[in-house]
Amino acid sequence: MTKTNEEYVMRKSIFLVFFVLVIGVFAQEGKMYQSVPFDKATILHNSKKNIYCPLCGMTLHLFYKTNHTAVDENGVLRQYCSMHCLAEDSLKHQLTNIEVVDNETLKFIPAREAFYVVGSRVKGTMTNISKYAFRKKEFADAFATKYGGRVLSFDEAFMIAKRALKKEIAMIHQKQHRMAMMGKMIYSKMCKKDGKRFKTTSDAKAYIKATGICGNLSGKKLQAVGLYLSGK
Asked: pLDDT (tens digit, 9 = 90+) per residue, 85-111?
């Protein structure tokens, strides 16, 4: 096989992988329990220009019902798409003042006052073990009765999240690497090259949207390019 043919086969394979990932997401978009309209979400961290999770780059309002916030050792408030990302960030930062979205009111509440339904049939965010929080136990109980799962405290739910981190991080990194390969192709065809690279996917996506270097790039394509520019 010639080098040209090898490149064609590789690009075709990458495209097929990306196509499967995108189709899977689109098939669930209308059914994503986690999502709320942007104007219903409270974005607290950084600025309104950066509406992405600082760990994985996911758009916060699309996974709002699993959002958490915390303050790091430098006094910076950080907002995450999921308890998984909160747990992963706790490996690098001393996090305090942890809050979570109450699934009944969509307001942030102290996480240690919440009742978490863990392991329900409702799909989780960045994890195979879903975790949804409620201020009132009766709402958590009703959710668990309808969708399954156990009603636990924050500390119990957080321990489960931390125990699953190693396996989940490995799985997520594989998916991110595949998307980053597609992001490289998209970037080469659709974006103005300015040589910038970023520490986080969140920062990369915010920069792309603010500068317009990739036109009106959005959705999974934006995520893919953000992953590429952050070196995932």
From this structure: 999 999 999 999 999 999 999 999 999
In this structure, are strands 108-110 and 68-71 parallel, antiparallel, or unpaired? unpaired
Backbone angles phi and psi of 11, in degrees to 5 = -65, -40
For residue 96, what are its two tokens?
């305090």
**Per the domain annotation, does 110 fall within a domain?**
yes
Q: Give the residue numbers spanning the domain of 92.
A: 38-163
pLDDT of residue 14: 42
Q: Does residue 15 lie in a domain region? A: no
Q: Do 140 and 151 contact (CB within 8 A), yes or no?
A: yes
Instruction: Identify the burial level of 141 via C-beta atoms within 10 angstroms of its C-beta, where 0-12 means exposed, 13-18 middle and 19 or more buried.
Output: middle
pLDDT score at 2:
54
Q: Is the residue at 136 inside a domain?
A: yes
Instruction: Say how many residues make up the chain.
Output: 232
Instruction: Give the Cβ contact number of residue 104 at 10 Å.
Output: 16
- State how many domains the chain has: 1
Whether 228 is in a domain gets the answer no
Mark the ranges of the chain whose per-residue pLDDT is less than 50: 3, 6, 8-10, 12-30
pTM for this prediction: 0.83
